């Protein structure tokens, strides 16, 4: 282990950062004015946790303009005598509630961290209690899972344009400002409102984009940043899909290998790939139903999506084997069951995925190019065929460019290296992404490898937990090439 020395950031460094364009464009963002503190009150569902809001600009380039309330929650450090400060958690997938994580799931962090830090999180702008993006449910339902031809490609373009207009009309100005660059500026306002001179942050999955962007914009305000299951925000359409297809297929391979060796798998001793091929063929014919939801027909894409989701945690694998086994044993209906009834046209629903389309530019010119992506994904993932990432192309099709927070290679110049906690067999944030991000960070990053499975590693491995805790508490950076052994799913 190496202990990092803190060093002051001088005017020369500040000027160099300005020259390379790393400081925020808005003077208000670069030099935030004193803002209101958070009025913490006991949370409604658990009085041991505290909830509050922070008033922030909708558009950070117009700090005196329209505002919204960012919802937050915290649990104060259990040992005030050893308190280090506040640890801010960056929620994972788009739509994940940080408030809910604190109120109902703060135990994801070790007892040692909970003794030393107030655990704080928030609902990112446009989600949950932070002015959620709202859209017409019927327009959301029109988005296809996969596009079949040029006519459907054109219809999807038109439908997405209608959806964007509807979401903007229902949500207001915030709809156009839910990108992660805006989120990073929110995060700095949270840091200031908490009274923290520097930020201590743990981001998971999509929350790693927030940590990366914060470190770019505010390098001298970083105390420690953990990126668990990091995303690579430097790649275009083809590389994004290819890496996701390979990552998903690797997760399928790992599940099959576990079933072959473990009696905890209900399909142990059987040909799992043959069973899967049969289920996929039934899905292609429209005669595969979900045994957990009577009458619900599973499309090939939905079969792959639900299966892939169960790869996230190894404790889900026995249940996945049971689910696949029950579908395999069930007789196929002679005709396709009726489709689900549609909802009323005036129903609305939150749309947290809006942030993705403002963070990623994944253009596709026409159906011919789209079909080529789908065929290539099937070659890279011959079992799953349809990696869930294909839906990102559909849902963001036609998004005006440039997007608010476009892909780019990282430019981070922090005093303390960012810590990447990466899993070799992560089903969603591939290990190749972590290695690429580590290369972009250079000496401003450190890669800690978990040799096991699952989307994330802090909660899966005591070895990873100890290394991350040492970094967050004492800024001890793991040695180059540091690795933690896999934890057997059957143990």
From TrEMBL:
This protein's record includes keyword Signal: yes
Residues annotated as domain Peptidase S33 tripeptidyl aminopeptidase-like C-terminal: 393-484
Domain AB hydrolase-1 residue range list: 86-371
Keywords in alphabetical order: Hydrolase, Signal
Keyword Signal: yes
Pfam family, any one: Abhydrolase_4
UniProt-recorded name of the protein: Pimeloyl-ACP methyl ester carboxylesterase
Family membership noted in the UniProt record: Belongs to the peptidase S33 family.
Residues spanning the signal sequence: 1-30
